[in-house]
Amino acid sequence: MARLQENFLERIEAFCDRAVEVANALELKKVSRRVVDQVLACGTSVGANVFEADEAMSAADFVKCRCIATKELNEFRFWIRLSSRREWIRADRLQSLEQESVEIKKIFGTMISRSKRR
Predict the structure, then answer these.
(1) Taking Cα atoms as reference points, which of 60, 53, 17 lies closest to residue 25?
(2) 71 to each of 93, 105, 107, how far by Cα in Å?
(3) Residue extents of the structural domains in the chain
(4) Cα–Cα distance between 117 and 109 in angstroms, integer?
(5) DSSP H helical ranges for the chain
(6) How far is it, in rounded angstroms, from Cα 46 to Cα 41?
(7) CATH fold for the domain made of 6-117
(8) pTM
(9) For 69-93, how does the pLDDT look when each residue is reduced to its tens digit (9 = 90+)?
(10) 6 to each of 9, 15, 63, 72, how far by Cα in Å?
């Protein structure tokens, strides 16, 4: 039972693709493997949890998956901000990705609050 619109799922996929690109760029810069793995894990986990939520078995499961995706977005945002501060990747390259993470997080927040009200 799909709950989410296809264009939103595509937006999430594009976000995850960009997260992979950041991880690849960090790897090319010879940044610690631990950091690269963290960026890759939390950035792609957003997509995995959104797709899991799309086929959630209950409203509670839907909310749980959304909450996890929100936490992963927060962690991803931390790592890209660190990457910018450390100048591993230029800040202007990461700015739109950070903004996208904030926008997606707001969408998740709305979905979570609406689901909880029902």
Answers:
(1) 17
(2) 23, 9, 13
(3) 6-117
(4) 12
(5) 6-28, 33-54, 59-85, 91-117
(6) 9
(7) de novo design (two linked rop proteins) (1.20.1440)
(8) 0.90
(9) 999 999 999 999 999 999 999 999 9
(10) 5, 14, 19, 21
